[in-house]
Amino acid sequence: MLRVLLASLLLVAAPALAKDAVKRETVESGSFKMTLPLGLQADSAYVPDDNPLNEGKIELGKLLYFDTRLSKDSTISCATCHNPYHGFAEARTVSEGIGRQLGGRNSPTVLNRLFSADQFWDGRAKDLEEQAHGPLVNPIEMGMPSHDNVVTVVKGIKGYAPHFAKAFGDEKIDMARIAKAIAAYERTVVTGNSAYDRYQAGDKTAMSASAVRGLELFNGKANCVACHASFNFTDENYRNIGVGMDAAEPDLGRYVVTKEEADRGAFKTPTLRNIVQTAPYMHDGSEATLMEVVEFYDKGGIKNPQLSTDIKPLNLSYQQKLDLVEFMHALTGDVMNADPPTSFPK
How many other C-beta atoms lie within 10 A of the C-beta of residue 227? Predict the structure, then answer.
């Protein structure tokens, strides 16, 4: 499994921040080492045994991630719905694929998927490799007729062969390698070093007074930490908070995967890192702003038989709601490996 090296490195920081308080951790996988932004924990990283990282694989994956030629009409790439200029999510209520067809769910962020195994809102993909297969052949997403067709398209672009050789040791191109490369790139798209992280590291000027009050509410009265836990602000679990459950035909989420009654209407808890960049919110994009999200939780979600026991009316004041939103703004950090390629293989 992934080998993790915890390396404490000094950062150039504001004078108010004690140098020995600023520690960053390093993920080591295969021949690749990546020093994480401040606030991320390397021992929580997940890289499958059969897909160790290396520079060539990450470079190849980045090209494939942004290449629209992997869609049926050459208009859609992974980056269309997971856009680096929108927090690696999409500024739409639900995602839009080829022919302007609309999907049924809002696009979740790719940020910090290094720290997650199961993927999608309902967790139906066991890892990023499996997730990468789906959108390519989904008829309302990238719309390719089959995975074999995807491979044919990539093989037809001669400039890709040297990239596969650098990534895997030879020029063989197949769907497994395409998915592994995309997943490898996605694991390097991480964010940290937010105002919150600097505050936690000792710089008590990094967050505003309102954000500090919001942090106290987050961990206290509002109890957001019950689900948005740990350094990545998600416990990676699935809960029913009532979103969409008052519809005539609600999206049943995790239940479709597990067939467990307790999972009816349950969806994965998303990370809150860089959350301000990824509006609209919830799996159906039904909440346009962070204040709307706070209001939704304040009223106790939408009642239904499977509503999570963590969801209860909060009775927050208007100022407390503002403070929670201000705290979530303080979770916006630096993003690694986000710039799109300047050119593509021909």
Answer: 20
Question: What is the rounded CA–CA span in Å between residue 51 and residue 42?
Answer: 17
Element spanning 3, H or E: strand 3-5
The amino acid occupying position 66 is F
Instruction: Provide the residue type at 13 as one letter.
Output: A
pLDDT tens track for 89-122: 999 999 999 999 999 999 999 999 999 999 999 9
pLDDT bracket for residue 23 (50, 70, 90)? confident
Smallest Cα–Cα separation from 141: which of 103, 187, 168, 193? 103
For the record, the structure tokens of 340 come out as 């799109």
Say if residues 150 and 105 touch (Cβ distance below 8 Å).
Answer: no
Please state, in angstroms and rounded to a whole number, the distance separating the CA atoms of residues 132 and 56.
Answer: 18
Q: 133 exposed, middle or buried (CB, 10 Å; 0-12, 13-18, 19+)?
A: middle
CATH assignment of 196-329?
Answer: 1.10.760.10
Residue type, 343: S
Which are the catalytic amino acids?
Answer: 141
Q: Where are the domains of the chain?
A: 196-329
Continuous segment of H or E residues that includes residue 191: strand 191-192
